[in-house]
Write a structure and sequence with these properties.
It is built from eleven helices and four strands, in the order ααβαααβαβαααβαα. By secondary structure, the chain is α/β, with parallel strands linked by helices.
Length: about 210
Amino acid sequence: MPQRARISPAAFDETAARLRACRLCRDAPIYGAPLPQEPRPIVQGSATARLCIASQAPGTRAHRTGRPFTDPSGVRLRSWLGLDEAAFYDASRVAIVPMGSCFPGLDAKGGDRPPRRECAESWRSELFAGLPDLDLILVIGQYAQAWHLGRSDGGLTGTVARWREILAEPRRPRVLPLPHPSWRNNGWLRRHPWFETDLLPVLRAEVARAMA
């Protein structure tokens, strides 16, 4: 069997550095109006990462700090995963690759706008090419799920409800779908208690396995 080609540890870092310098959505937007604030692309990872959190887009606090999930959603997500902050922000083991690397701005109701489409189209394939050792990708929210799994007639709920089937598929890295940990999904979590009773124990075990 031919040996798997190795990616240089610098490859992800080089791509991430170019991404952090990207100003496409402000200076030459392809979809809609320019980004309403100075871009601050946020991404985490390295060629040795085993776990990837494929998220939506940074929020207001992440935009201010330059660090992903520095808000109550991050606290909840780390609780779901069974990881403390030191492990969660260990780029040698955990990659965080949002669908949109910049905070997309707020809509008329005060919620975050969808991730900018330009970002995934321009950067996502190259970023993942620099993550050759991934064992598990956690796809959080409908945008990441559509990118990694294709669109589902059942939407986010239907996709997450099929988590066993998706996790068992013969793909590498393996994929596990999750809802977004935002407080806006509290109602969803109450309506679907199986997420906590059935999915969370498996999620924590799979994360521990990937991180070992």
